[in-house]
From TrEMBL:
<dbReference type="InterPro" id="IPR051257">
    <property type="entry name" value="Diverse_CBS-Domain"/>
</dbReference>
<dbReference type="InterPro" id="IPR000644">
    <property type="entry name" value="CBS_dom"/>
</dbReference>
<protein>
    <submittedName>
        <fullName>CBS domain-containing protein</fullName>
    </submittedName>
</protein>
<dbReference type="InterPro" id="IPR046342">
    <property type="entry name" value="CBS_dom_sf"/>
</dbReference>
<feature type="domain" description="CBS">
    <location>
        <begin position="7"/>
        <end position="62"/>
    </location>
</feature>
<keyword id="KW-0129">CBS domain</keyword>
<dbReference type="Pfam" id="PF00571">
    <property type="entry name" value="CBS"/>
</dbReference>
<feature type="domain" description="CBS">
    <location>
        <begin position="81"/>
        <end position="136"/>
    </location>
</feature>
Length: 214
């Protein structure tokens, strides 16, 4: 799964010479949490609503609203933006992108290709990808299974699905679930699975849960 498959391609951006007032309006209008700062399609920085608010006078310190309006209208984005922000390539894997976001405690990444901004990846995009991988539009069943770490155990599990002529729609493996077992979720098409259950148990697979998919 690649970043380019899930990123937002229609990105709201702002110019480095734009004012804080313009940024505040974009945040309000589009309800976004980050604004890439772009010059000639090149990413030069990024700004968040928090960056903007930190630059504004406190309501306790400001003499009056005119001071706030003046600073908002005259302060440029370049004064508050984060220059050279972290980015990701559209060809990078979602796992790589999540690792960067988790390590740096950020909830979004600009997507850059050859220096040009081509998209933005958010936590929402990643959750959408997870849901798409683990759900289906067709009626089916999801099995939560446990197998041991022996090399042939995974093969035996898959063989049971194959022998029962079941179409696997999605599969997710948590190899390090425990010292002795790995946890695997498998979604299949169709609801008839009694014979499959028997074959899984006979193959040494522990069936933890069976959940209908609607």
């Amino acid at each position: 799964m690649y970043v380019g498959m899930w990123m937002n391609r229609e990105v709201i951006t702002i110019a480095p010479e734009a004012s804080l007032a313009e940024a505040r309006e974009l945040f309000r209008k589009h309800r976004i949490r980050r604004l890439p700062v772009v010059r000639d399609d090149r990413l030069v920085g990024i700004v968040s609503p928090g960056d903007v608010e930190k630059a504004m006078p406190s309501i306790l310190d400001a003499q009056n609203s005119q001071e706030t309006e003046f600073l908002s209208a005259t302060t440029q984005i370049t004064a508050i933006m984060t220059a050279a922000p972290l980015t990701v390539s559209p060809d990078a894997s979602l796992v790589e992108a999540v690792g960067v976001m988790r390590h740096n405690k950020i909830d979004g990444l600009p997507v850059v290709e050859e220096g040009r901004l081509v998209g933005i990846l958010s936590i929402t995009n990643i959750l959408d990808a997870f849901l798409d991988m683990m759900t289906t539009e067709h009626a089916g069943v999801r099995f939560d299974l446990k197998i041991d770490h022996r090399s042939g155990s995974f093969y035996k599990m898959i063989k049971a699905f194959q022998r029962q002529d079941k179409e696997i729609l999605a599969i997710m493996q948590y190899h390090d679930f425990s010292r002795d077992q790995q946890l695997i979720s498998v979604a299949i098409r169709g609801r008839e699975h009694d014979a499959l259950l028997d074959m899984l148990w006979d193959s040494g697979v522990k069936v933890e849960r069976v959940t209908p998919i609607t």
